[in-house]
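User: Here's a structure from my thesis project, written as structure tokens. My advisor, Dr. K., wants to see whether a designed sequence matches the one we expressed. Can you design one independently, without my sequence as a hint?
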């Protein structure tokens, strides 16, 4: 929980309608320091509805920190982060509501081990969305169906494969009906044979026009599914563009070197 109370009158945003053509997320001049470590060094990024933005870059380049600044899991040290037109660093923003509008999925699933698959999904539906029990269960089951796991609803996460757990984590985020999904290397901890089933869920979501920011090492996925590829190095966006162009014709020596190491 954010530890912040929702201010009076703030209930409409971020659930209220917002123009389709306006960018969902706008980052301007975002810097992040951890003590003396300057991790984000002026990042500008806009994400529009329906875009699938893949972020690539070397380990330690600030990809996770950037993603965490988008939904305020980290507070930017300076710069602006807007979501649906509003500054999310405003202390009056209800962070639980904000995050329910941009689900995040991590490398290590982060499911609650003591809850069933179904309960993992209904928890926030009931407490953040305020759904009644029946409505929450119905919605959870339909999201589990979408990721092909309806028959696992009663199981505990420890009984599932890594790929199945990751699909539950995605279903949990989707159940909140987010405007955007953030994925941080969600296939990196999986055995190779389980990567495909998770990427397939992301492909399906992309086809249904879900807006996504996906930090990934899966270059094939980035090339085929992303509408835009963003290359980060040293806390800045070094290059961005159409994936095929960027991958076949990198403009900077840094991206050339990175691609020669990963592809
Ligand atoms: P990436 O996801 O691209 O690997 P990160 O955003 O995780 O990069 O990290 C960027 C840099 O910030 C790294 O040097 C990392 O050690 C450092 N870092 C990340 N999170 C923290 C933190 N909470 N406290 C201190 N340093 C951090
Ligand atoms: Mg990372």
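Assistant: Designed independently from the structure alone:
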């Amino acid at each position: 929980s954010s530890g912040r109370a929702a201010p009076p009158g703030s209930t409409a945003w971020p659930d209220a309608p917002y123009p389709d053509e306006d960018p969902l997320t706008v980052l301007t001049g975002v810097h992040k320091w951890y003590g003396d470590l300057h991790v984000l060094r002026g990042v500008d990024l806009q994400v529009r509805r329906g875009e699938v933005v893949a972020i690539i870059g070397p380990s330690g380049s600030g990809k996770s920190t950037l993603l965490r600044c988008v939904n305020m899991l980290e507070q930017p040290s300076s710069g602006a982060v807007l979501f649906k037109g509003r500054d999310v660093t405003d202390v009056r923003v209800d962070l639980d509501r904000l995050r329910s509008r941009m689900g995040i999925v991590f490398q290590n699933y982060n499911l609650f081990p003591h809850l069933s698959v179904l309960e993992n999904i209904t928890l926030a539906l009931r407490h953040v969305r305020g759904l009644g029990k029946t409505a929450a269960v119905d919605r959870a089951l339909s999201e589990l169906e979408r990721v092909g796991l309806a028959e696992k609803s009663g199981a505990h996460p420890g009984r599932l494969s890594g790929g199945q757990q990751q699909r539950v984590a995605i279903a949990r985020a989707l159940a909140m009906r987010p405007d955007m999904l953030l994925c941080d290397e969600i296939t990196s901890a999986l055995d190779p044979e389980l990567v495909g089933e998770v990427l397939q869920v992301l492909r399906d979501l992309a086809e249904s026009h879900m807006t996504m920011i996906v930090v990934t090492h899966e270059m094939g996925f980035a090339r085929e599914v992303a509408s835009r590829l963003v290359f980060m190095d040293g806390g800045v966006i070094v290059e961005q563009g159409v994936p095929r162009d960027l991958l076949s014709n990198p403009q900077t020596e840094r991206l050339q070197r990175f691609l020669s190491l990963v592809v």
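When you compare it with your expressed construct, this may help: The two ends are 40 Å apart (CA to CA).
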